[in-house]
Queue: 2 jobs
Job 1
Amino acid sequence: LAKTTQPISMDSYEGQEVNITCSHNNIATNDYITWYQQFPSQGPRFIIQGYKTKVTNEVASLFIPADRKSSTLSLPRVSLSDTAVYYCLVGYNTNAGKSTFGDGTTLTVKP
Amino acid sequence: NAGVTQTPKFQVLKTGQSMTLQCAQDMNHEYMSWYRQDPGMGLRLIHYSVGAGITDQGEVPNGYNVSRSTTEDFPLRLLSAAPSQTSVYFCASSYSKPGLTSYNEQFFGPGTRLTVL
């Protein structure tokens, strides 16, 4: 499984756009990039997944450059409720049951 | 659908005791996994299963056993509890579709907070 590197923590203010970058230099051809969000005392929750270029849903956008060695999760106009830990995972569907989460990025949104 | 359910929510054990953490899903997912999460850390994979009757070890399998007799259930057994196993345990399930549109979103349960004294 490809190893991922993320910043340990980030701070932001309400209403700002937040970008969290994940490095995955050893990503394989068939690997997908998936981001999860975890609130205290809860299990992680899927946010977005992509393979290349840009993916957007109602919650976030995911930007993946052509070489796919990194990816950026973009959260538009964050609110206090976006304070959470964000995890970047890389893997193929056959690894659906064996994802490596790493330590994630703790995002703190301030008023 | 109830999604992924875990019981109990909280458990306190004494060193050397054994117990089983229950996990069930009603989404007919092929894949199920057990993770542990220590304070301030990410999730580490204990065991996983790609279908009924098939299990395999993850990163930290020592001290734990699993079995998958049905698609719905994936219990985790602690054989002889140790203080190092104090953690929050999450069960997850997922499905996948073949091809370039494969999709491996995992659905997590609410967790079991285990303390071993």
Job 2
Amino acid sequence: GAVVSQHPSWVICKSGTSVKIECRSLDFQATTMFWYRQFPKQSLMLMATSNEGSKATYEQGVEKDKFLINHASLTLSTLTVTSAHPEDSSFYICSANSVNTEAFFGQGTRLTVV
Amino acid sequence: GQQLNQSPQSMFIQEGEDVSMNCTSSSIFNTWLWYKQDPGEGPVLLIALYKAGELTSNGRLTAQFGITRKDSFLNISASIPSDVGIYFCAGPRRAAGNKLTFGGGTRVLVKP
């Protein structure tokens, strides 16, 4: 089946620093990747849609300068949390689709900002 | 945003019991997906449904796509401890680049 790899699985960073999370489709080309944020005991909240070679589309209320998304190839999208603060601590998950598949999710990244 | 109503929100299971959960929508979906999420992991696709009325099985899991295309249910037969987790229904919006609309999730727990 389709495999989506997300890295790192967890990261702890100091307040004010930036953190980059990678999402890779390992065995298919992902025309679209999505980035989600999940709070404890809640469903997934879509942050942005990432299409290869074009600018990401952000959901309402998501700061694009805060959460930088780059989708440089059909197998890699990155999310950079810039100038992270404790309120950015969360579980971030990516998913990837090709034209022939439903969404497959990465393992998620637990971000803790101290 | 969340537009699928999923119930129950949580449930306790005892090993061997059958488990049932459902999802309803005010609008039509042409595809229904069921995912399971284990703690600290991303969701894993369990079953995909593409036709109204379709009944599909995956091992002990059975899911049905309602004939109105506004609902779906997931059954787990003869539950085992590893069935514990959060189950999400989801509907992709093809016209919006396959954005997923999620249900609120059903948390399956083991009876103490």
